[in-house]
Backbone:
């Protein structure tokens, strides 16, 4: 899909959504009610026109495909490379500047 234009990708997505809607035996009007968007938004979307992102998310929810957004835009914190970094790594331990309680230092007047 990387080599496709934005319009070509949009056409593929709208065609797939339309097939899902038809497979659910829903008219555009029934689907618009289920999605909570206007009939005009559904017809515009299926004809390849731009729609608001919130309407697209409502369409995916109505098709029970909203969980697939995780695939579309994965959570960066769940990438395998983040697990390597987040493993508890040993930290360097600094030598304490404090001397032992039993210091050998003397002022010279002690015996």
Residues:
């Amino acid at each position: 899909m990387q080599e496709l234009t934005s319009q070509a990708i949009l056409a593929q997505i709208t065609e797939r959504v339309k097939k899902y809607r038809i497979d659910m035996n829903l008219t555009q009007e029934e689907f618009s009610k289920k999605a909570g968007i206007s009939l005009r938004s559904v017809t515009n979307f299926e004809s390849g026109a731009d729609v608001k992102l919130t309407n697209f998310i409502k369409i995916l929810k109505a098709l029970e495909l909203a969980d697939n957004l995780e695939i579309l835009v994965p959570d960066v914190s769940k990438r395998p490379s983040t697990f390597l970094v987040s493993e508890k790594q040993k930290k360097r331990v600094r030598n304490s500047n404090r001397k032992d309680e039993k210091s050998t230092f003397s002022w010279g007047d002690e015996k």
